[in-house]
Amino acid sequence: MSRARPVLVLPENLPGPDTRIAAVIGDPVSHSLSPRLHNAAFAALELDWMYVACHVPEGQGANAVEDMRTLGFKGLSVTMPHKAAVASAVDSLSATAAKLGVVNCVRVEDDRLIGENTDGIGLLNSIRAQMEVEVEDLRVVIVGAGGAARSVALTMVESGSTVGIYNRTNSSAVQVVEIVGGTSSVVQQNAIRDAELIINATPLGMAANDPMPFDVDLLRDGQRVVDLIYKPAKTTLLKEAEARGLQTLNGLGMLLYQAGEQFRLWTGQQPPIKAMAESVGMTL
After folding, report:
1. Which H helix or E strand runs over 279?
2. What band does 107 get if pLDDT is binned at 50, 70 and 90?
3. 91/158 Cα distance (integer angstroms)
C-alpha cells in the first residue's frame, strides 16, 4: 500500500535557507490554531522560525516522525490521532510522556528526537494565570478518562492535588488511576459536590445537543469549573456554572500555555504569552 502524501498548510511568507521549521500533524488539522500561536511567538521575538500545518492521515504518524528527521524539522506538535504512534517512533520519551504513553510534542536534542507531553502543564499554567489559584492541596474531580484526562490528572497529582476520576465507564477510570497513581482515585458522581475544582475532560459540550457530562445540580457555591473544550467558547456546562455564580474557564488557555511550553522546549526561550494570546483573540 502506498503512503498517503501529507498536505502542508504554509504561512504567507515562505522560509529562507536558514529558517528553522516546526509543524503540527493531525487528522484533521485544518482547524488548528497552533500555526497562529507559534508564528506569533516567533514574530514577537524576531526568531527565524516558521510553523506549518501538515495533514497526516491516520496510521501515518510514525512515518511523519521519520519525515521530520529527513526534512530537518526542529519541532513537532502532535494532535489526534497520532499521539500514541509518535510515542512509539521517537528515540526517547520524557518521564511524563513515558508514563502517559502519548506524545503531543517532539523536540530535537543532539540529533535525537525526544517525545514530550505538555497538555497537563498547559492546563496547570492556565489555571494559575487565569483563575489565579494554586492547585496544591486542592480537591479536584476530573470528569472523563481519555488521553486529556490522564495528562491533566498526572500533572495535578504531581502538583499536590487530591484527584478523583469520575467516568461513566468505571473500568476506564480505573485505568487512569493505575497510570497516574499517587493521590488519585476512582470516585462516583456525588464526589463533585465536595470538590473545589471540577474539570470536564470529555467531548460532551462540543455539540449543541450534547448531554451534560455530569449532574450540574451537584455544583455548589465557591467551586471552580473548567471545561477543556474551547469551541464553543462557552459550553452549556460553563453557562450553567456561571449562572450559579461560579468561576469558569474554557480550554483555550490550556491550548495557549501548552503551546508556550512547546515553544520553550524548542527554542530555549520564554514564550511571549501575551502575543500568542492576542493571535487567537485572547486577552490576558
Report:
1. helix 273-279
2. very high
3. 25
**What are the two backbone dihedrals, phi and then psi, of residue 156, each rounded to the nearest 5 degrees?**
-65, -45
Residue with cell 496544591: 136
Element (H, E) at 253: helix 252-267
Active site residues: 83
Kindly report the CATH number assigned to the domain that includes residue 108.
3.40.50.10860
109 and 230 inside one domain: no
pLDDT in tens, 71-103: 999 999 999 999 999 999 999 999 999 999 999
Whether 101 is covered by a domain: the verdict is: yes
Give the three-class secondary structure for 263.
helix
Q: Taking Cα atoms as reference points, which of 133, 181, 178 lies closest to residue 157?
A: 181
241-248 mean pLDDT: 98
Query: Using one digit for the tens of pLDDT, what is the confidence trace for 249-267?
Result: 999 999 999 999 999 999 9
In this structure, the strands spanning 112-116 and 247-249 are unpaired
Closest CA to 192 of 169, 165, 173: 165
Phi and psi at residue 200, to the nearest 5°: -85, 110
**Of the candidates 225, 224, 273, which has an alpha carbon nearest to the alpha carbon of residue 253?**
273
CATH code where residue 175 lies: 3.40.50.720
For residue 124, the enclosing domain spans: 120-250
Task: Name the pLDDT band for 41 (thresholds 50, 70, 90).
Answer: very high
Cell of 172: 476506564
Cα–Cα distance between 125 and 108 in angstroms, integer?
24
